[in-house]
Task: inverse folding
């Protein structure tokens, strides 16, 4: 069957000739999507459902991108404020783990030793208080 091409601002629409004839007779164009061929180099045509899905996916991608960038900036600021050169601070768990390790290393005190010292000091204070 012969097709007729319409160019609407750079959007090429191909329709079967009998559909064009019916449209001219009735003054109305009703086209099933499977009978319509739309071609355009600069424009994309979506159904309403496709556009809503596209829009939702775009918003989700933008949100995730912004969230990741914000987290990375926050961890970089915490790294700068702490004064420690901590690598691998892309997430909270990694940053906190690296920060704890760095603080303990810089304190040059084993955590168990510090607990023993505090327990000993506590016992001394109790003894002095009781007497």
Result:
């Amino acid at each position: 069957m012969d097709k007729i091409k319409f160019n609407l601002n750079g959007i090429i629409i191909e329709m079967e000739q009998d559909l064009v004839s019916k449209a001219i007779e009735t003054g109305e164009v009703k086209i099933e999507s499977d009978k319509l061929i739309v071609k355009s180099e600069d424009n994309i045509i979506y159904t309403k459902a496709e556009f809503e899905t596209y829009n939702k996916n775009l918003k989700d991608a933008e949100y995730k991108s912004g969230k990741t960038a914000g987290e990375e900036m926050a961890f970089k600021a915490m790294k700068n404020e702490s004064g420690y050169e901590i690598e691998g601070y892309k997430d909270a768990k990694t940053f906190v783990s690296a920060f704890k390790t760095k603080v303990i290393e810089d304190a040059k005190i084993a955590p168990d030793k510090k607990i023993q010292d505090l327990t000993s000091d506590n016992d001394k204070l109790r003894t002095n208080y009781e007497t």
The first strand starts at residue 3 and ends at 8. The first helix runs from residue 17 to 26.
